[in-house]
Amino acid sequence: MNRTLERILPKVQKPARYTGGEYNAVVKDRDTVDLRYALCFPDTYEIGMSNLGCRILYGLMNEQDGVWCERCYAPWGDMEEEMRREGIPLYGLESGDPIAGFDIIGFSLGYEMAYTNVLNMLDLAGVPLRSEQRRGLAPLVVAGGTCAFNPEPLAPFVDFFVLGEGEDVTLEYIQLFRRAKKENWSKEELLRAAAQIPGIYVPSFYEPVYRPDGTLEAVEIKEGSGAPEGVEKRIVEDFDSSYFPVKTIVPSTEIVHDRVMLELFRGCIRGCRFCQAGYIYRPVRCRGAEKLAEYGKAACAGSGYQEMTLSSLSSTDYPQLVELCDELMDYCQPRDIGLSLPSLRADSFSMELVQRLQKLRKGGLTFAPEAGTQRLRDAINKNLREEDLMQSVRTAFTAGWSGVKLYFMLGLPTETDEDVLAIADLARKVYFAWRECTPNMARGVRITVSTSCFVPKPHTPFQWEAQVTMEEYQRRVGLLRDALKWDRSITYNWHDPQASYLEAVFSRGDRRLADVIEEAWRRGAKFDSWSEYFSFQRWMDAFAACGLDPAFYAHRERGRDEVFPWCRIDPPAHTGFLWREREKCYRAETTPDCRTHCSGCGANRYLTGGVCNG
Question: N or C: which end of the chain has fewer CB within 10 A?
Fold first, then answer.
């Protein structure tokens, strides 16, 4: 650590965020590597270190001879202020070297409200913000993650985007860069070659054309670029044999998910119409229980972690869940290692599962009915019946649980006031189920109802929908809040509609929003998902300065044939299928899950033989 850094660290909160040196961190000899990669997460150390995707890519890249991947996180405001004052550029945690001198700077994009942090990190590194300003081969700025499925708002800042799962494609473009570096290619030559790799979208090779009303006429391919008509996402087809980071970094300070994470499967069988992850990560691919147990034991032994979590979009849909829990409990119980199961489905929370969870540490249980009435749950294809939820909470209360969290969305397509008030009725039924089933009422019960504002997302059946206004969302919040006042055992939390409004804008936004992002950043925007920094007025001022109306992006329903900004990204589920699902929403018709009946979404095209194993 350099002396200047030693001097400023006592002045900031949580200095362990910035020191590196953690157990299992990878340090290589600079003279033995020919490619250096800065794996950047545009949020704090605590959140970035909890990201399983980053852990996978970090371990995978560092297994390659000649490649050194280092981590880099967004410094909190106090540390940034000290770094700018002392002239310390953003650096890799493993070496302390400025990332501006690295070959590739890669960002993981999981949330639209982190976009200003991307710009802030580039600036703090001393790297020009816009791709066109970076003339040389290095540093190459790339980005991937969920938000890359609409890359347009960040397009001018990123050299290319990686679509889908990164294990294979990352190694492919790294090898391409090493060749380009060795043969002294220009940046243009590199980008042309990168555009030929499946799963890579080079935004500079595509040009949006707008109509007078502001909608898109087309996204045209630049002549001579050789860019493909459409870019198809990448998947790891043989997920069971894919890389898993058994040797995980042990953080020097507490992080959000401070535990071993086992990824049960990728994708989701359910098809909830609002859920972007459920569509873009199709098809479902599982990892075998025997291999998961092996990985979990090795990761705990190699890190000293006393907590393990089974991770997926819907953990109780894992076919070998009971067998896996039995195998892991034989290991965890004598070692006092906790085992947790997030993402529980209320319709598959069985007594068989409860009997196993009873042997572990009892935390609160979380279920996500999403809507209060059966009609609306059918409209969004939640495929959850009220009797399933009630049976699950009765089972939990009988087994001794005394806390339940219930998650809902307000503003869903076709929602009425009756649907909103039904959330309170459902919470009331859960309360009385506790009174009926609990063996120890003296402990009391904690029922938490949380609502967020529905955000329409690309590549889902609701990508054509308008978001309700912030005023309408607040009205519905007030309606529900008044209906939930009857008992202190029920706590109601709701999400800030201002952040959800901006999320909707950038989720479906076009390339013109890049100017807004830069303007907001220049006005001080950063850490926009943190209340300490978020300023809605700052964003409204940035939109006004750029002559754009955010309501155009958030509150406008799209026609079936409107050209989307992400039209050059091949939809993971066919557009015709998504439109049919939208029509079924308005008829409150459900679509069975993938294991019950194939709905013909088209995700099977990613698999050899064209057969999903959901």
Answer: N
